[in-house]
Amino acid sequence: MEIYGRHIKINNENILSYNGNKLAILNLSLNRLKESIVINGIASQSSEDKMEVDFKNVDLQFLNPFLKDVDVEVAGKINRNITFQSLFAKPFFTSNLIIDSLSINNNLLGFTELNVSNNLNFDEFMVDVRVLYKGNEGIQNTPLAIRGFIYPESKKNNFNLNLSLQNFNLKVIDKFISSFASEPQGFISGDNIKIRGTFKQPDIRGELICKDGALKINMINTKYFFTDTMKIDNNKFILDNFLLTDAQNNKLNIVGTITHDKFEDFYLNLQANAEKIKILNTNASSDQMYYGQAYASAQASILGDLSTLDIFVKAKTEKGTKLVIPISSKTSVSNNSFIKFTSLNNTLKDSTVQLAKTPQKDMNLNVRVDLEVTPDAIISIPMNFSQIGGSLLASGKGDLKIDINNKGDFNMYGLVNIDNGTFGMSIINLIDKTFVLEEGGTIQFNGNPTNAYIDVAAVYKTKASLAPILGDKYSKQVDVNSVILLSGNLMNPLPKFDIKLPNTDQQTVDELFMHIDRNDEKQMIEQTVSLLLSRQFYTSVVENNTQSSTNLSSSAFGLAFGQMAGIVTNMITFVDVGVNYTPGTEAVSDQFDVNLSKSIGKWEIEFNSVFGGKTQQQAQATSSFIGDIKAEYKFTDAFRFKVFNKSNANDFTKYNVSPYTQGLGITYKKEYESFADIFKSKKQRSKVLK
Q: Which terminal residue of the chain, N or C, has fewer Cβ atoms less than 10 Å from its own Cβ?
């Protein structure tokens, strides 16, 4: 007959007999391939009768269907025997089994000896279990050893065991922590860990020494490393300044407890403190409320079980932060507009991160964050306005309150004051320019991030002649700032274009804007596109077809030169390079501009040169090279020192002055509520505010 795939063979040598309270079995075997279980002996009430069960290469995997509910899979080969005495009265039991290559959840533990007996007293079982592991280099250790006694009949204390661990592989716990963590690695050691208590409520006490440990928290997809000591006190794990580090060796200290009920129903009561630590490492997903990389100095508390978890955080952004909060552009939440906090040093480097596992649906997660936004992070908002696209990167300061839960609620409150940053603008894939943000912009959050309000101004600095608008006597190149004002709802801010001449006399400025209506949106877009594309003011008046043809060919050459300049700029990485070409006219020669800039610590160095851009008379009288050099050292945001060599030809339109001005200076910027506050002491101003 067949039993669970095994055959019982009965031949002339097999004898099964039962007489009263006596069962005799001689050489009864269950066989499958190379596996066998052989039962031989007499089972009765007599202590002198005994029965042996011999195992030969029996695969432990036949137990896995019974262990499925506890997420345990075992493997290995059982050998040797178990002996029973007085089986029908007070049974005595002796086991000297061995298991070759015991593994739990696909993790090899090693060669295992199972010695269990109650020869001294039928209700007292002596236990001696050892797991021996031999590495590739012949190094042998004992990952697990349990010695002591088990009292199955006792109602007060079923265990009197001592547990020792030596480099026990943490991968074994993978399935037990899968609801909140994964990828465990490292080893645990501990001597003389005491196991007492009952089967219903075991009492375990001792210390665990973790070595080369690591664990990934699924919710934030961040891996932490640890080598420290953890205390076990009955049903709780105690962390006393337990040290975790991230991949960059930033440190996080944890104090608190993790309690459990027979290693189920875990409850966390933890306090964490970090000067700087990675707290997020996730990627975009359709159901993600936030993603990216985040570094913070923080104080946090984590309270709750694995069904309801409350996290309270007081944090300050640090360098390297890339926290992305998806925001839809106009209608669809799945679109690619978002807010992102990221290090200014890493704005040109996109990090590839793995997508975190989605938290279990039954987990009730509540996260509250008081976030201090610092200049170490920036805000990035990709934008699209019909044929105009761009990406806003803004560094600033502010305080934000963030409330998040896994039900889809996401609210932000607070104001970010923008100090500096950039706006990279692209127009119909033809123009790609980087504007610099003016200080003083703001982003205001009032709950749902999609209802935030933005108010910023971005400037692109160039040089152009006013001759196309005002005539040849204004042929000198002047500083021209193209300005984009972004204001309104963050989802759909209204762009407005403007032009400023920062170093030109007011009379000339007024005369220029008699020909250009700054309130006419169409005119301002035309002038902005013309300045960005060809570094010339746009005029719709064309004298003849020859002039039109010349302008078209010059613009085409300008576009080709711009592409070449982009290649050069990408090749040079140690300094920021800007190269541009402005086609000439009959009155003014062609012009080539080269701009080099570099930030070194608190130093900001800029060199700008112009080749050409002269009338015939100027070209004969002076060199066609104009160079501006400026070096500025920032002690603080308000206090700065600078030295410069400035070409006056770039500063005035009509007046002849000396070719260059050199100098040095100190600037200090301070804002006051009123003119009278300038003359009041800090103490007096404080009294007024109170």
A: C
